[in-house]
Design a protein that fits this description.
It contains eleven helices and ten strands. The protein is of the alpha/beta class. Bound molecules: adenosine-5'-triphosphate (ATP).
Length: about 260
């Protein structure tokens, strides 16, 4: 069992009379490429917020590398290696990718607020920032203000920032959402090339990405795990089809064999 990196057991989250997460048990294995899918309102965002500590569970436990983190503050979960991608906010708009990544790498290495002075001096920080720029195909835009970047490049920067935090578990929250067709390929290739030792939980509506990326899938419906399995098992599962068919606009038109991508 020690190859389980992140798990939750009997996780419940109630908002007043609404049960958004209903007795969810999930295991993420070391090196996993695991996708979490489900129709709108299934509880995916709530579950990610519980795992990252943004929300406190009504009941249940969350374990990271064998330790109970159910009540650990979000920033301390990041320090322990549980990192999610987040949308770049105003804070980074006027900074360049190089500055942003140097800042995050500096913070990660305990250099804190002295990052800017250290940038020129600390070869380790500059080198790691440069590696990340190359890995995420941001070299050409390294010195452009983030607010001027193409949307796909911003999404790449978001993943690069998460990786700069040296995660053991990476929660990828809809990495291709809103990315124009012409910029998607680069993003898909970069996601596919994430380091094998980082375990990834992907939440995504784009079924092309889900089925090309994941080797394990969990389907959430009404806050509950409907089923879990390999992509082939999920695709063949009549219950999964019914659930998505019931929602009309979703996977019924989106399962890969039926030739559609976005749901
Ligand atoms: N803060 C909140 N207060 C009350 N109800 C909430 C809150 N957050 C989520 N919910 C409800 O919990 C349920 C699950 O919502 P959640 O956003 O987690 O689903 P989701 O699977 O992420 O949906 P989507 O794919 O549309 O983003 C929904 O019924 C939603 O209305």
């Amino acid at each position: 069992m020690n190859d389980v990196v992140l798990s939750c057991r009997g996780l419940v989250k109630k908002f007043g009379g609404i049960t958004a997460t209903n007795d969810v048990t999930l295991e993420l294995r070391r090196g996993a490429r695991h996708a979490l899918i489900g129709p709108n309102g299934a509880g995916k965002t709530t579950l990610i917020n519980l795992l990252t500590g943004v929300l406190e569970p009504t009941a249940g436990t969350i374990m990271l590398e064998g330790q109970d983190i159910s009540r650990v503050a979000p920033h301390l979960r990041v320090r322990r290696g549980l990192v999610r991608t987040f949308q770049i906010n105003q804070l980074f708009a006027s900074m360049t990718p190089l500055q942003t990544l140097a800042l995050v790498v500096s913070q990660q290495r305990g250099l804190g607020a002295r990052w800017w002075r250290k940038l020129g001096q600390d070869a380790g920080v500059a080198e790691r920032a440069q590696q990340l720029l190359e890995q995420f195909r941001l070299g050409e835009v390294a010195n452009q203000r983030t607010e001027h970047l193409a949307y796909g490049k911003r999404r790449l920067l978001e993943i690069a920032i998460a990786l700069a935090c040296e995660p053991r578990v990476l929660l990828l929250d809809e990495p291709v959402a809103g990315v124009p067709a012409g910029e998607r390929e680069e993003l898909l290739e970069t996601v596919a090339a994430l380091p094998a030792d980082v375990s990834v939980l992907l939440i995504e509506h784009d079924m092309d990405l889900v089925f090309s990326f994941a080797n394990r899938m969990t389907v959430l419906v009404n806050g509950t795990v409907l089923t879990e399995g390999t992509p082939a098992e999920i695709e063949a599962n009549p219950e999964v089809k019914t659930v998505y068919l019931g929602h009309g606009d979703e996977i019924n038109e989106g399962l890969p064999l039926e030739g559609r991508s976005h749901v």
